[in-house]
Amino acid sequence: MAALYEGYTLCGLVPDQNLSSSGIQGIEEERDRDHVVVTDSTRSVTLYKVSDQKPLGSWTVKQGQKLTCPAVFNSQTNEYVAVTDNKVIRIWKEDDILLDKAFKATVSSDVWKVHCTHGGEPVVLFQRGAVRLLDSLLAAPQQPIEEVLAQEETIRSMSLEKFYDDLILELYFSHFLYLQRLNPNSVQRYRLEREEPGLSPLSFSAIYKDKHICLLYLYPNGHMYQSVLSVRGLGTEEGVQALPLPRSLLLGLPVGDGQLEAASAMALDEAHVAVVGVPHPSAGGGKDFLCIWNTNFQTLQAGKEMAGKIYGQLWSYSNKVFIPHGKTLSIIPFECPKSSLASALGKLKHTKTEESKTPNSVPSWNNILHGEKAQPSKTAETRRTVSWRSVFANCEFIIVHTLIQKEVEGFLTRSEFQDLQPSVGQLALTLVSRSLADPAFYSSSTLAQLVHTRCLCHSVCPDLVLLALEKKDYFLCQLCLQFFPDIPEAVTCACLKAFISMPDVDAEKVSLEPNSVTFMENLITRDRAEAGLQNGFSPTSSVVNDRQTRAEDKKKASAPSQLICPVGLHKAVLINEILQTPYSDTFLLPHLKDLSSQNVMLFLQYLQFLYLKYSQDAFPQMEGFRSPSLSQIMDWVCLLLDAHFTVLVMTPEAKGLLLNLHSFVKSQVRLVSELGKIEGSLQQLHKMKAKESIGQYSIEIIELF
Questions:
Q1: Where is the composition biased (Basic and acidic residues) (predicted)?
Q2: Per-residue pLDDT tens for 155-176?
Q3: Given a cut of 70, is residue 527 above it in pLDDT?
Q4: Residue 131 forms beta bridges with which residues?
Q5: Rounded Cα gap, residues 261 and 419, in angstroms
Q6: Facing residues of 274 across strands?
Q7: Structure confidence at residue 182 (pLDDT)
Q8: How does DSSP classify residue 152?
Q9: Is the peptide bond before 184 cis (omega within 30 degrees of 0)?
Q10: Closest CA to 111 of 130, 135, 92, 91
């Protein structure tokens, strides 16, 4: 069955005062599946990284100007394209700062939208139905633009798809549909069958298969219709007369009291459609839901309540639904496996396959879950192989951990990578749910196996990290921090509290990932006498006078290599994982303020220890070891000071620590200042061309200005 997983927030919204609009014009997927471009309803375009919900760039037009169509990304040129004030086309690159200084061209007619397929050239659609490829339009921006539409027609929606070498543009109106082939240019006009008087479609959606276009359109009365058109039927001449568009009723959705207003439907695949703004059949009034319906069997398969007002907007990219609601733009991951009648009704039965069974074979899933006794042996003994979906549906039965682990190992060995993610996600959800419901049940090793596949993330299984903390399974916590790119800041701080409050004696009993432990062992216990070698020479081998020797001895006695780590080895390893976890400053700071002053002091002391160790000239660069960077350490120092500066200033015990931190910053400023003095000289060296003929020995004088 289809599933909606735990969602997360991409960004906040600024809806208009009467909440009639979300404030978002459009969302477009960028060059890969982890970046989207969000265009607001007024002046801004923002590029987001989806996996960690961070803005990577933002561009704003001047006061008085307005973005009038969503920005798109042209993958052919790695440029962004948008339209301001209906007629000004703007093109810019990611490293451009000001839109006003980017390329712009004014066209002769109002633009309705710019659309771009993956790998294709952007297409410009004008408000009166004319279409131009972007390059041909920019070659002559003031070229005359013809009117294709009748005077009373206005565009409601559009989509663009590439079929082999054909570009097919669909224009949706209240009662008509235009299909336009761009190469060669041709238009066919279709007439939608009339619904109840005064009703026009709320939304349009399309999927494409085998040179057929499958159109879905939703009416305010809850009727969702489907029309199938063949691309082969598009001729090379413009169609003058509107042809009737046959349709079939696909779904009759519940509408509650009255009719639907802010609702939208989007096809996810051939058998599933996402619907927002339509009441849930079994929920009370006043609640808004995002639902997935199976159109083959007309069954509701997944639903998630959405807080706040629904605006009737919906986008879907890479198995994620983007939905504005209230003052939030949320991302909801989903899964739509191939459906059968049994799975659609939630009554999928176990399937039997004939397979030879050896005396020492592992018991089947059916035996594990149901406790069935082995059947009498036959000439060719058989065992029951259940589908993974039946495993998910029957996890309320007692599971023997060792057998589960062996079955999981076998499954992970046999399965292809592309088949793992949905199954691993479902299995992890089931195991976590069972563990939460039954405190006596917890399969640590199996969950660790699933995390190691890298097919899980926090949004797929949101209770996993907190469950591991509750069970004090710090090894699993460490794995999640390493492999999950989307852990919320609140969960990160919960892990930090647990790690830093744990007694060192208890921490040393925990088994952790060896690579990170080895790094800390080297950092804490390495004999710093190796620091004696500098620039290839040992100072002890040189002839030095007594004064130099005494000075060196005094320096070594006070060197930072004598520092003692304020926390135990294993606790340090766990804190290092926190330092390397992605975060947003805005969302992290409020949770950091919940740390006690004692924990803050200990954390800062540990960060000071790391800083001093990293600052030593002789500190080895241990490639291949998982460890925090110096910039990450300094970022966390700044975060802690921002969150607790007032408390630290008022705490007498923190005075020495703050003075030390002040000296760190002062030394960094001094270093940057000194580097700035020689910047010009270094640039001159970089510009100099090396001589081609240099003997085995040469002396060259370089003049630096």
A1: 547-556
A2: 666 565 554 444 555 555 556 7
A3: no
A4: 125
A5: 39
A6: 266, 292
A7: 67
A8: T
A9: yes
A10: 130
Is residue 213 within 8 Å of residue 228, measured between CB atoms? yes
Q: What is the mean pLDDT of residues 349-353?
A: 38
Pairs from 393-402 (Cβ < 8 Å, separation ≥ 24): 393/346, 393/348, 394/369, 394/370, 395/369, 395/430, 395/431, 395/433, 395/434, 396/434, 397/369, 397/370, 397/371, 398/371, 399/368, 399/369, 399/434, 399/441, 399/443, 400/368, 401/443, 401/445, 401/446
- State the number of CA atoms in the 13 A half-sphere of 238 facing the CB: 6
Sort strands 67-74 and 79-84 into parallel, antiparallel or unpaired: antiparallel
Q: What is the strand order of the sheet 88-92 is part of?
A: 67-74, 79-84, 88-92, 103-106
Contact 81, 67 (CB under 8 A): no
Q: What is the pLDDT of residue 398?
A: 42
- Looking at residue 351, what is its pLDDT? 38
pLDDT tens by residue, 553-587: 444 434 444 678 899 999 999 999 999 998 888 88
| Three-class secondary structure of residue 259 per DSSP | coil
DSSP state of 577: H
pLDDT exceeds 60 at position 127: yes
C-beta neighbour count of 238 within 10 angstroms: 12
| Burial profile 48-58: b = 16 or more Cβ within 10 angstroms, e = fewer | bbbbebeeeee
Across the range 222-226, mean pLDDT stands at 89
Structure tokens at 598: 């004692």
| Residue 233, φ and ψ in degrees, nearest 5 | -75, -10
Token pair, residue 404, equals: 């589960």
Give Cβ neighbours of residue 584 (< 8 Å, ≥ 6 apart): 52, 53, 54, 489
Angle of CA points 577, 578, 584, to nearest 5°:
135
Residue that has been written with the tokens 């926390």 in this structure: 567
Please give the residue that has the higher pLDDT: either 623 or 466.
466
**Can you tell me the distance from the alpha carbon of 200 to that of 175, in angstroms, rounded to the nearest whole number?**
7
Task: Compute the distance between CA of residue 448 and CA of residue 454 in angstroms, rounded to an integer.
Answer: 10
**Three-state SS for 435?**
helix
Long-range contacts (CB closer than 8 Å, 24 or more residues apart) made by 369-376: 369/394, 369/395, 369/397, 369/399, 370/394, 370/397, 371/397, 371/398
Check if the beta carbon of residue 447 is closer than 8 Å to that of residue 399: no
The CA R_g of the chain, rounded to the nearest whole Å, is 32
The single-letter code of the amino acid at 553 is: D
Q: Which of 332, 336, 320, 344 lies closest to 270 in space, CA to CA? A: 336
Enter the tokens of residue 407. Answer: 């079955």
Could you tell me the two tokens for 593? 């303020």
Q: How far apart are alpha carbons 432 and 450 in whole angstroms?
A: 12
Q: Give the pLDDT score at 679.
A: 77
| Token pair recorded at residue 480 | 């999640």
Q: Which domains does the chain have, with CATH numbers?
A: 21-148 (2.130.10.10), 390-525+562-645 (no CATH)
Nearest residue to 499 (alpha-carbon basis) of 588, 442, 578: 578
Mean of the per-residue pLDDT values of the chain: 76
**Integer Cα distance of 477 and 177 in angstroms:** 54
The residue among 211 and 263 whose pLDDT is bigger is 263
